[in-house]
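ok so I'm stuck.
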Amino acid sequence: MCDTIDFVIALRSTSAEDAIARLSDNALHRLFNPPNTPLLIESPGICHSISTYLALEHSSQDAYECVCHSTMWNFLQAPGIDNIQSIYNIEKLICTFTSIEPIHHDMCPNMCLVYTGPLAHLDTCSICGKSRWNQQRLQGFDGCVKQVLAQTFMTIPLGPQLQACNHSLESAHATYVCTISTKGHGRFCVSFMTPKAFPL
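replied:
not stuck anymore, here's the structure
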């Protein structure tokens, strides 16, 4: 009960700049100053990398790297072939283009709770008693104690996602039509948030 009250109090005083939110300075700036022009990507290599990344969303990183390697091998003279990105670089670029940055919080390895707000100071789960830290990697190779998290929880903030939808005229119009068509009906339309809303 005390934890519940503490969370209610924390929610009442929360803000975008709150340390719990863990938004970077760049993400905060873009959140309060959203871009008002369409996103234009001129490099065919980067466009191909983004398209491949989105198409292989539920596949392994190796699958992405294999497709990119095959493209570079079979289309040596294609425009933009030198700009095909690694998985690490394309994820960074997508974050830069859209300002959608994941927020990571520590969590119980049994998924009982997330160590945030009033629970941020705990080292063990108050429900199952599991340690917050990976016990197998707690002891470093040089004898020094090295704390490694057992599990993390990732949140994708909604605000930057909605702002990213307005990077193109097509998706911005779809958002407007959705708002008008569902106004007063108690429904929320999510069709404009599909991958089709992000044309390259």
